[in-house]
Specification:
about 325 residues; alpha/beta; Rossmann fold; 2 domains; seven-stranded parallel β-sheet; 14 helices; binds (2R)-2,3-dihydroxypropanoic acid
């Protein structure tokens, strides 16, 4: 095929050379810096030939994008979350949305447990205690054991289950709330189901593992924090916008809860003017739940595999709007 007719993959994510080669066996690659609006950053001549988009959660994929890319068959997101994508609009446009489930569960679970250890055992506080010279004046305040405490998971999907396993290894009592109770978790003794309010009121650690969507936006707010124990910690490694951040800041400032560990915020990167920055009882992370060499490699490999499968007419492994696949399969043949 000549250059003007060759089908294109718009790539707006960091793809290692060997995986770029896997794409270029099927499609011409047009690279765009991550986070840019594709409608504006890609010339019309290229958009007209694009059948695939590989992007990160920083790329907004809205209705206007589907109009601007009339041949688009697949959006392959380099993330398990897909709140950057208007999935109903993609489905209407006959565009398949793919994501990267499964391969980042352990990394996110490790970070969650790391934050629980930091909060319970005061690791960050104690680091400051040593560096400031406070130790020279006397011993540090006592921390608290994780063993015997109640670890509450809001959301019991793949990541929630992985966190539950780790919390059990610390001899914690693991409880969860999910839309549907998880029969296997109950049967195996991994975790016990609680009603949502009971999860907030009984847990010593509340850890959030729900996706962001219209129903979950700001779904954790003043009411939920008022249910928590004053000694309890709140942790979020899912999406910042599932929390009413002003209510969380109030709960942390007023001592309604003991502290928080946040890997995600409503607006990222977090502005240094945010009230969260000055709160001593918060541990902040720069959205790094999946940010290890091994996990990011597995995620990008899956995202590329999803894209290449669509380009070659095969069903990809991880589809968000699976109902679109027969439509896309017909186009791909
Ligand atoms: C995901 O995969 O959704 C992560 O939050 C991105 O790091």
């Amino acid at each position: 095929m000549s250059n003007t007719t060759r089908r294109v993959a718009i790539v707006s994510a960091p793809v290692p050379d060997d995986l770029q080669q896997a794409i270029s066996q099927h499609l011409e690659i047009y690279s765009v810096p991550a986070g840019q609006r594709i409608e504006e950053a890609v010339p019309e001549e290229v958009r007209a030939r694009a059948i695939a988009l590989l992007c990160t959660m920083r790329t907004p994929v809205q209705e206007s994008l589907f109009a601007a890319l009339p041949q688009l068959q697949v959006v392959s997101n380099f993330a398990v979350g897909y709140d950057n994508i208007d999935v109903p609009a993609a489905t209407r446009a006959g565009v398949l949305v793919c994501n990267t489930p499964g391969v980042l569960d352990a990394a996110v679970a490790d970070l969650t447990i790391g934050m629980a250890l930091c909060l319970g055992r005061k690791l960050v506080d104690n680091d400051r205690f040593v560096r400031s010279g406070a130790w020279l004046k006397g011993p540090a305040p006592l921390a608290s054991d994780l063993a015997g405490k109640t670890f509450g998971l809001l959301g019991m999907g793949r990541i929630g289950r992985m966190v539950a396993k780790r919390a059990r290894a610390f001899d914690m009592n693991v409880v969860y709330h999910n839309r549907r109770p998880d029969a296997e978790a109950e049967r195996s003794g991994l975790a016990s189901y609680l009603e949502r309010d009971a999860l907030f009121s009984q847990s010593d650690y509340v850890s959030v593992h729900i996706p962001l969507g219209p129903e979950t936006t700001a779904s954790i707010g003043a009411r939920e924090f008022s249910l928590m124990k004053p000694t309890a910690f709140f942790m979020n490694t899912a999406r910042g916008a599932v929390v009413d951040e002003a209510a969380l800041i109030h709960a942390l400032r007023s001592g309604q809860i003991a502290g928080a560990g946040l890997d995600v915020m409503v607006k990222e990167p977090l502005d240094t003017a945010s009230a969260l920055i000055d709160l001593p009882n918060v541990i902040l992370q720069p959205h790094v739940g999946s940010a290890t060499v091994e996990t990011r490699r597995a995620m990008i490999a899956l995202a590329v595999d999803n894209l290449v499968n669509v380009a070659s007419g095969n069903q990809p492994k991880a589809m968000v709007n699976e109902s679109v696949w027969p439509v896309v399969a017909k186009k791909a043949r």
